[in-house]
């Protein structure tokens, strides 16, 4: 559970705790639920239950006690008002979003009036302030609408200077009359004219920065000047800068720190951010960066972070009730610091001392439970004080209430009312003794130590009365014991198995090791009032018998009793275990099993019929293969379990007296065998095999040049689909047949297959196939025909000839011998290819002509047109052979 | 196809924001280190940016020039690098391999989600086999989401997708699907490209006031695939096959194109007298519905080349043909607008389903019983990849 609620605790509960232990207003957030995941009332209740359980667990932690109590109180209130349901939660969320919107608007109004931007931390604070009713993105957009931007990514300001020597800069710079160190190298005017520092220090106008080479040059110049106070100051500044410039980011860190130091007094004085930004721009910092820096510094509060680590550790220790740890930490802190924490520690220690004093007084007055309560309270305040825990453990709790012990087969279950102790975690010890109850926790056999109210003894001695006594403890001293009445265990026999055939009944069982014997009696169902008859048990340990004195068709009840001897030699018997057996005649095999597939209510059903055999019940079993046994073989029931599965369904008797079983058809191959069962035997009957494969449906075939794109709906149960194709030339049977097999995976990706069939008319045959252990079953064939395609004549236009004598050539290439009909050449001046003759101007006509396959024929257009992309050829609409060719355009060259 | 050098600008394939390699951050691995093990908590940035509210391990800064870093509080080593803006885990070779953002946009009901699903399925299967390319989801969520929510739903359950929610309607933003496209690069070397697909809603493209991520998506894209449904054009509708399911008339292609042009001009800072340099593939979807209208010589009636290169001749033939069809349906205004605004654009005619969906229960659409039968869906993608130099280009006439 801890893991499940960890994110909830940190994001929701910790925020609520910091907000003064106010439960979150949004009920979905409060109950850690996603509205989409709690669609049903059961799921909603389950979620609410899990969260409230978690709150109760949190109540035990001091840090979360206040918020947990507030949450549970609010939960009770919701429960009373009948508002613990999804509708109520949703309505409240909608109402709260409205209120949160107003709150947000007011806050944004205030922000917009005081600052043009805020930090990411400020944005998150806003999110928390409206109780997470709006996301960061939504609030960012609302701020943007009011002209307030978010500094994202945030400006991460280092806690101190980039190099320790930076602290020594102020004095030489003051001596030189500079405010920032870059002025030493770049000059005051250049720096004041503007610079940026966020992504590295550089001047705004020229992108100039400070390099080691610049500094070396400056240093060389200094060597030529005479030694005086100014030279010393310059040398110091250059040395510090050179040290920093070894790593480029150090220079910008150094300058940033200098700016911060200049702005620190303004920030500490709480001046408005615009004024702080103005001070930064006076130093030369870019206006936008100045604003961002001012807002970030104002948010950080500049300084005051010293000793935060130790102080935080002390605060954490106090919150966790670790007073000794807190005292140890505070001993290392100077006496004048962390005064609040010292006061808190002192108050806690005083409280502990008071509680211990009260506990001592209660102990003297003999009020042990009061003593325990007071010590527990003190231990809760000072959790790391082991002495208090030890003292608490030494106070024995009051003894437990009523104890009961009951027999459950061969074990004893002991239950008791818990100790009325008010304080501390109480544990119980259960002790077993014979002769009488235990007088101390150390007597007898310890059965179990537990904090529950129940224990189980699985090692109970048989046929001897035993006593169970329960003692309680808080971890140290045990209370006086409380005992149950004596119990006596007489375990019955177990695992009784009866098997029978036509002439005998055989039994086996398991008795408790302490049993001295097992007696078996038999009664016949046909004579229920006759006295039970003793059945002799074999002498080999007494765990089986074979009763041959039985009659076929009769049912016998056998009663098994375990016999025990007590210590005094008395004979005791367990409760009887009764099992029945019916000796039966041999099963007779079914030899006339018949199958047929029929349609029932539109669905295919397999109907099986057979003549009922004279003895035994018939079961139909389905399997992959036929049985290895011959028809008429007699096998055991156990052996039969290795063969196939029983087929469900109700057997009825048909008009002709034959038994009828109808079962749904499965696609593929099924093998069904009739088995006759009687007693422990099974007679193997006839077997039938059925193969069902659906034909393909929805076949569509489209020609794309010489390829046929064939598609169909995949038939249920098919392993693959086989496609065969041959020329549609009337030859039967076809001579040249090609074949392809398509798997379900390939069909799923493309819906069928693309087959290169050539230009002629083609017949395609599609057939579904299933394969089971090498055997193939096929569906009926579905035939489809695709017509042949016309002759394809490609054409290509290109500009040919020398400059000044340019002409347009039209080249025609046919893929087959053909008589090309008359063609027209159409042109569009906008360069778009005409799709029909009437979509452009006819610029040329060429008469009909013969074309040989693959042999290009070039024609010259009588006119020059441009652009070539606007040219297209069409069969002359007046041609009588318009259907015989397809004119395919090539890209103009 | 150059690996990012230190300091050069990279774009996060999840939030599309730019950053430098040195700004890359790390996420703790959660392994047991020298000190106390780190715990998971809600990552507010990830939740706000991409709506992922799964508890995450902490994010921290370290030397991003290295592929691994040690998380100081727990001492555990990690190789999980994250985007400094949205905290998404970056793919393994991010920054070392080429990263190409391909924006997939189009009007409402133009079939973007179906097209994206079929395109990726084809890249993972037939096209992948053709180019010896491996296309794999670059992160766990892409792998899971693509398989369950997209591929399985369309190819196995035969269900069509509902209208994609607009970004405005989705709290916390939508997470793009990111894939790595790996092709052999001679010898034992391979060439990797990261592909980021962002499933936009059609409405996101018709309003000029699109939300931030959408605009970032479009302007950071290295190539744009713009989908048009020809059945939205009244002149084309009348030629649709009798059994074709006609969509409601919604946004005109010109509106979508105008908005895209304005967004790109505005955000990319393209001068008024210059054209946009981002290559644009203008794709007419659902061409199966117009199969009866296509003339016999149409290149869409031919089997496209299947060699391991992008066939320029075939693509140009399709482009010419689509221009002619567009002129027939809508005049030449759209074509003029494209040539006036884009330095490189090409038209394509494709069908993702291969057949009109069938209506079930009056309103619910399902894939035909014959299944998904795509044609030429990969052409626009291969054109863009050939423009980027990620796949070879062939100028041989189709069929040679």
Question: Could you walk me through the main structural features you see in this protein, from its secondary elements to its overall organization?
Answer:
Helices cover 31% and strands 29% of the residues of chain A. With 893 residues, chain A is of the alpha+beta class. In chain A, strand 3 (195-196) and strand 4 (202-203) form a beta hairpin. In chain A, helix 8 (170-176) packs across helix 12 (229-245) and helix 11 (212-223) packs antiparallel against helix 12. The longest helix of chain A is centred in the N-terminal third of the chain and has 29 residues, at 86-114. The two termini of chain A are 74 Å apart. Mean pLDDT of chain A is 84; it is low at 301-308. Chain B is an alpha/beta fold. Helices cover 29% and strands 18% of the residues of chain B. Chain B has eleven helices and 18 strands. A seven-stranded mixed sheet of chain B has the order 9-10-11-8-12-13-15, sandwiched between helices. A three-stranded antiparallel sheet of chain B has the order 4-3-7, with no helix packed on it. Chain B has a two-stranded antiparallel ribbon with strand order 1-2. In chain B, a hairpin with a 6-residue loop joins strand 1 and strand 2. Residues 1-7 of chain B have low confidence and may be disordered. Classes of the chains: A alpha+beta (893), B alpha/beta (400). At the A-B interface, helix 1, strand 30, strand 31, helix 22 and strand 46 of A face helix 1 and helix 9 of B.
